[in-house]
Automatic annotation (TrEMBL):
Belongs to the Fur family. Pfam families: FUR. GO terms for biological process: negative regulation of DNA-templated transcription; regulation of secondary metabolite biosynthetic process. This is Ferric uptake regulation protein. Its main location: cytoplasm. One of its GO terms (molecular function) is transcription cis-regulatory region binding. The lineage of its organism: Bacteria, Pseudomonadati, Pseudomonadota, Alphaproteobacteria, Hyphomicrobiales. Fe cation binds at H109. It comes from Phreatobacter stygius. It is found in: Cytoplasm. Its cofactor is Mn(2+); Fe(2+). Keywords: Cytoplasm, DNA-binding, Iron, Metal-binding, Repressor, Transcription, Transcription regulation, Zinc. InterPro entries: FUR, WH-like_DNA-bd_sf, WH_DNA-bd_sf.
Length: 179
């Protein structure tokens, strides 16, 4: 992974306050991160870094690109997101080892994951306190801790528990009398 200078990250964060990044700004950002500014990377960079911090999947960004008139393949979008993450421009968040989200905020923070909505939210700064971490194995050091807290609505959990407790009643909608 390339180390992106702090001043560049600060410029990217400041650019999030602008309504839209210009192609020239994105080109400069890509070069600073050690990436060649291709047409595809510039188009995706403008979508990712132009407005606000966000959590996206490759499918989300692919849809945004198509809506913006950039006919890119889903594979190109996915590869570009991974290249941006490897260069330190994005933060990769893996959910259950099967789905990847990409976060435009590369600063230290943790996340909530809402299972039923397949959505990620930032946990407010200072809301998580870790007072003790395990010692790493010999020859290793801890460089980062990523915490994802999975959420389920209380009503959904209660409904699942009820259906597990009495499968006969869960198969019949409440408005229909089984007799």
């Amino acid at each position: 992974m390339l180390l992106v200078p702090d001043e560049f990250r600060d410029q990217l964060r400041a650019a999030h306050d602008d309504a839209w990044l210009s192609a020239v700004q994105v080109q400069a950002a890509l070069r600073a991160a050690g990436l060649r500014p291709t047409r595809q990377r510039i188009a995706l960079g403008r979508l990712l870094f132009g407005n606000r911090h966000r959590h996206v999947t490759a499918a989300d960004l692919h849809g945004d690109a198509l809506d913006a008139g950039s006919p890119l393949s889903l594979a190109t979008v996915y590869n570009t997101l991974n290249q941006f993450a490897d260069a330190g421009l994005l933060r990769r968040i893996s959910i259950n080892g099967e789905r990847s989200y990409f976060d435009t905020d590369v600063g230290d923070h943790h996340h909530f994951y809402i299972d039923a909505e397949d959505r990620i939210l930032n946990i407010p700064a200072g809301a998580v306190a870790l007072d003790r971490l395990p010692l790493p194995p010999d020859g290793y050091e801890i460089t980062k801790v990523d915490l994802v807290v999975h959420l389920t609505r209380v009503a959904e959990r209660a409904a699942r528990q009820l259906s597990k407790a009495d499968p006969a009643t869960s198969a019949v909608p409440p408005e229909i009398d089984p007799l």
